[in-house]
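Attaching the record inline, Q. Sequence:
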Amino acid sequence: MIAALRIILIGLGFLTLTLALLPVQLIALGAGLSVMRHLPRWWHRVMCRLIGLKVRAHGRLSRDRPLLLVSNHISWKDILVLGSVADVVFIAKSEVRSWPVLGWLARLQRSVFVEREVRRKTGAQISEVSGRLAAGEVVVLFAEGTTSDGNRVMPFNSSLFGAASAALPHTPEGKVYIQPVSVAYVGIHGMPMGRYHRPVAGWPGDVALGPHLLRVIRGGALDVDVVFSDAVEFDAASDRKKTARLVEARVRDGLNAALRGKLNG
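Structure, as predicted:
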């Protein structure tokens, strides 16, 4: 009964918030107003509170631009979490566009949809991402290309850093800054979350979205750490594979520090 009531209340909260902000976002998108970049952050913050995600940021978003954030990926909740701490746009796989509700929301927050298997579209997709970077927007890349169980970082795909290379000719200093970001689900209902319970927060690819979404809404009360590491300079002389490995290592270090409770602030 309590779980059902919680689902109803969160559903009502989602509808009220979304319908209230929707006209403003649509007008901003149509007119190209800067509020279109900031409104999604307010939405994400409120939704995190409604669902029960307590987000704690460690470190700071880099002030350098153009800025590409590279993060590990555990669940669809990562989007709410990262969207609540910074004004960002996401690189999402093309399938997300057709997802019920989430796909519609992704379009409203101006996500860039990519079809990684379709090589003939790669150039146009990279061009769109690099254009966003050159325009000063902060773009989030989930470089693993899939979701993990929350206990580890999967190998990064260096080809996904192609947008950073493509943006270099359009930047004033010929540089793009790549900032590693670690997302860690560390607690549930105020208690530390051990490695065997952490997959509760994760979303494996073989689990249907609907049942997982309902399980998260029923459960709630998850503590999430977001760790911003120092940004890495990327220029024409940079090796893409080496940069990918360096960023991957820093994301892994941030995740491990959060999971072990070794974060200082």
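The chain has one domain: 2-259. The mean pLDDT is 86.

More tomorrow.
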